[in-house]
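#onboarding

Welcome to the new folks! Below is a worked example of what a typical request in this channel looks like: someone posts a single protein sequence, and someone else replies with the predicted structure as tokens. Don't worry about understanding the tokens yet, we'll cover that in week two.

Example request:
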Amino acid sequence: MLDKSETTTFPRMNRAYNDVFQPGQMSLGLVVPLEAYPDSAVPNMTGHIARAQLADSVGFSALWLRDVLFNVPSFGDAGHVFDPFVYLGALAASTRGIALGVASIVLPLRHPAHVAKAAASADVLSGGRLLLGVASGDRPDEYPALNMSFEDRGGRFRDSIDYIRAMADPYPRCDTMQGTLSGGIDMLPKPSEAQLPLLITGGSQQSPEWVASNGDGWMTYPRDAAAQGREILAYRERIAHAGLPDKPVMQSLYVDLVAQADAPPRPIHLGFQSGTDHLRRYLMEIRDLGINHVALNLRFNGANVEDTMHTLAEEILPNFQS
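Example response:
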């Protein structure tokens, strides 16, 4: 369990990172699309901007987009359909304070120069509200469509991280397999602060030591409490061993919130159905294990989504940083 008396501070980065991630505390966000679509791979996206504005107004700390290039039938989920960077622009213009995260951009499928420019643009246009999750990708069907190899995506992922980091410098210099920056040209805009917050998803085909040393935080998946506690402790031990300041950990969670507050949990895909009492206890437990942010996914929610958002805001958010 996390000893809150021993927590220090996370690095200071942009507005979103500083607001969403606090040592010893937990904030809550929502995964887009903000709708239930349990029986279809494709959401209808009706009223999605209004629901994003609702999430902003009732106090959720972040909205999380995904990078799903193709609808791959075997995966059964097309995400929010829109390109994440285009969607970030729309959300930046239509929301005010909520952080805008991507969980996660599949770096091996995109050139890092385009990622760096699009991400910095979204960060500046939103007033420093971007959180850039990055991943190596897990849909083998997408790679042949771009004439790319799935097996070597780990190397391209590392290379992209180096390239994107370099782009924050004036007239950057960087020699990578995806291009050489010789110092004679510059990329604009620069991020709102010194660098973009890069949050690494899972292992991303890297060693645990590399993940701990090279990201600004870690995105992981739900596990039972004992296993999750061990994973978080090991991650933070690797950070300390590398001589680096502590970094945040976040996870996703599918929830189906029912009206009866004391309804017991029932497992669903990567989460559970329950009332607010169990959800509150679970979130408090993983907060005390060291999780700093949870991205709630309402895809399998049986109740009206707006009603569920209001219930979460009234019954759950007051117990956590928002």
